[in-house]
Design goal:
The complex is a heterodimer of chains A (277) and B (378). With 277 residues, chain A is an alpha/beta fold. Chain A contains nine helices and eight strands. The chains are: A alpha/beta (277), B alpha/beta (378).
């Protein structure tokens, strides 16, 4: 059994996988392992890039591999090697078999990454921390489920190009100041700004846009799971909105009906009446 | 418009800052809290305030953009000018790249509609109710013929905008209908939706269940249709837009309302048992789309997967096909439904939830009393 350490990103996996492939090692003879728990009997494989020509694989596979490399489970590394092995040993149409258990598993992982990415784009909240040389500066704190900081960064770069910002996470941080994205090591939440004077207005909006007469708490929670709430300035309103909704609805229903008021004198309304004829 | 930046406990997504420039209004639409007869407190924003609020919210990643509407003040043109002014300032002064949706007024001038379309990604006019007569009673200042005329203008401008980039114009229009405020049945709603999709190329029709308002009108006492009705209308709408269904397949003269207990595709399939079962390994994509429990994605996956081998039930299971729903309607390499054994009533019963669950969300404890609509004048 050949043992390799979990790579830390896609490029590293690719280097290892190329080397394993050129040695002709089938997936069930390779053990992917956490570097902290190296087995006594393991035989460490040489991770140096081999000089043999890289195997041609479908573009769709590279994309899938890049995506699920961000998965926090580390289960993806051996799965990806198995898929690669099968692609290079005759099963070229592998990815068009959505009913293949390994393809299915990889697609599931890609879906999880996609969802995490989407939620990060949605739930990051920037807090304004200052202004310098006519550029506003913002900081956000976020805890993604998977290692998606680099995957998410282009979205924020495109959308918030005209401001300076940092997104801090426990895994890795990303910074933008107008020319290039920079990355730095993960930090503790205590370093992140918690307040922004606009949050109170946003909470007012959130409170007002809620319709107490149609409570659908489960629908809300399936789209905005509770694990995200702690970093959303509006989330601590939820409980109160739910508990008071019944009372507020009843109040609306108890109000007396209002009689119709006559139309005011207005030339535009008169013109509408003319049109009606 | 894409991202939902938050969700409220009513289950709805917050994607845009959705506000009125003012809730002062000349019109007297009886389903609306801001009708002139309502005793609600009135307020207004200046266009500059809305611009600043939109920019501030956008920079904090609270929203995708602005959805701006307004009560009608002075005249359609005066109101429309204010609304357009906000969009113009955002785009031309602040180079705002977010999404803008403007509610337009059918009676506004051609020039103002053109400008609205120039700055907005989407514009919309609410059709409100599917039938002319209902609108006359409940929203006397509104008129379906004028709305359709305006939608037609917007459609033309939008297609001109597509063929000539200099005439940039919103990429689409949408509308909203209120469900449960009048006596229209689901067939009326879907027929109107079909009219709008077909004739004016609308991108979306939104169905909004009539819901209690703080100051209800004597003309229209509060009543709440079951929320599941709204849900079924959206499902039916989806069938029309993406699954190739015609309005008169979804509702019929005998069944003018959608079955609230089961989804409209299953309901259609049960009325058309003679078309089933269909063979998963041989049927066309269009036929697959008609199978209850099979969505667009799985129909595509099936056409792809069956190239390598004949599909069996376990393959469909791996693709996460809703077998509970589709089993009675499909043939696979290892499955043939016992056609005579399972009658339609049994299938319906299998999928219909117990009556009290029809409200969709069990966390909702609110009991809204149903108030009978008086008289037959609606």
């Amino acid at each position: 059994m050949h043992t390799v350490h979990f790579p830390s990103h896609f490029k590293q996996w690719r280097t290892i996988a190329r080397s394993l492939l050129s040695q002709g090692l089938p997936p069930d003879e390779v053990l992917w392992q956490d570097p902290q728990q190296t087995s006594l009997f393991a035989q460490q494989t040489d991770e140096a890039p081999c000089d043999r020509e890289a195997k041609a694989v479908p573009k769709a596979f590279l994309k899938l591999a890049q995506t699920i490399s961000c998965h926090r489970s580390n289960e993806q590394w051996s799965l990806l090697y198995s898929l690669l092995w099968r692609l290079c040993h005759g099963d070229k149409q592998l990815l068009s078999k959505p009913h293949d258990p390994q393809v299915r598993r990889a697609q599931q992982m890609a879906k999880q990454i996609g969802r995490d990415l989407h939620k990060m784009h949605a739930f990051v909240r920037f807090k304004k921390v200052g202004e310098a040389e006519q550029r506003e500066q913002f900081v956000a704190w976020f805890e993604p489920e998977h290692l998606i900081v680099r995957l998410s960064a282009p979205f924020f770069k495109n959308r918030f190009a005209s401001m300076d910002w940092s997104i801090l996470t426990p895994d890795e941080c990303v910074h933008w100041s107008g020319s290039e994205l920079h990355y730095s090591e993960g930090v503790d939440q205590s370093l992140a700004e918690k307040h922004d004077h606009l949050d109170e207005l946003w909470r007012t909006y959130y409170r007002s846009i809620f319709n107490p007469a149609r409570l659908k708490v489960r629908a809300m929670q399936s789209e905005m799971p509770q694990k995200y709430w702690k970093n959303l300035p509006e989330a601590d309103l939820i409980e109160e909105l739910i508990t008071k909704s019944k009372e507020r609805t009843q109040e609306m229903l108890n109000n007396p009906l209002s009689p119709v008021k006559p139309a005011p004198k207005n030339t535009y309304l008169e013109r509408l009446k003319e049109l009606e004829k | 418009m894409g991202i939902c930046h938050s969700y409220t406990p009513d289950g709805r997504c917050i994607s845009l800052l959705k506000i009125l420039l003012t809730n002062v209004c000349l019109y007297d639409c009886h389903y609306c809290i801001n009708r002139r007869s309502s005793n609600i407190q009135r307020a207004r924003f200046s266009p500059e305030e809305v611009v600043q609020l939109t920019l501030d919210f956008y920079k904090r990643n609270y929203i995708e953009g602005l959805f701006l509407s307004s009560g009608i003040v002075r005249s359609a043109d005066y109101t429309m000018e204010q609304v357009v002014h906000v969009a113009k300032t955002l785009r031309e002064i602040h180079h705002f790249k977010g999404y803008i949706h403007l509610k337009t007024i059918p009676e506004a001038s051609d020039e103002l509609i053109s400008q609205a379309g120039k700055y907005a990604d989407r514009i919309s006019i609410n059709i409100e109710l599917p039938k002319k007569e209902s609108l006359q009673t409940l929203a006397p200042e509104k008129n379906i013929a004028r709305t359709r005329l305006a939608m037609n203008q917007i459609k033309d401008k939008s297609s001109e905008g597509k063929s000539d980039r200099r005439l940039s114009f919103a990429t689409g229009q949408s509308t909203q209908m209120i469900v449960g405020a009048d006596q229209s049945n689901d067939g009326h709603f879907l027929k109107r939706a079909g009219d709008l999709y077909g004739n004016f190329k609308l991108r979306r029709v939104y169905y909004s269940a009539f819901s209690p308002i703080p100051d209800a009108s004597a003309i229209l006492p509060l009543q709440s249709p079951p929320l599941v009705r709204e849900h079924r209308l959206y499902q039916a709408d989806w069938l029309m837009r993406f699954y190739g269904f015609q309005v008169d397949e979804i509702t019929t003269p005998e069944n003018p309302n959608l079955d609230l207990a089961i989804d409209p595709k299953l309901s259609w399939a049960l009325r058309n048992r003679h078309l089933f079962p269909i063979d998963i390994n041989r049927s066309s994509y269009e036929e697959l789309l008609r199978v209850p429990g099979l969505g667009i994605r799985n129909a595509k996956r099936i056409t792809q997967a069956r190239r390598s081998s004949a599909l069996r039930l376990c393959d469909l299971q791996l693709m996460r096909v809703n077998l509970k729903k589709s089993l009675a309607f499909i043939i696979t390499a290892d499955h043939q439904p016992a056609r005579l054994e399972i009658d339609s009533e049994k299938i319906r019963a299998l999928h219909a939830p117990p009556a009290q669950q029809l409200e969709l969300d069990l966390t909702s404890q609110i009991q809204i009393p149903k108030i009978e609509v008086i008289g037959g004048e609606f």
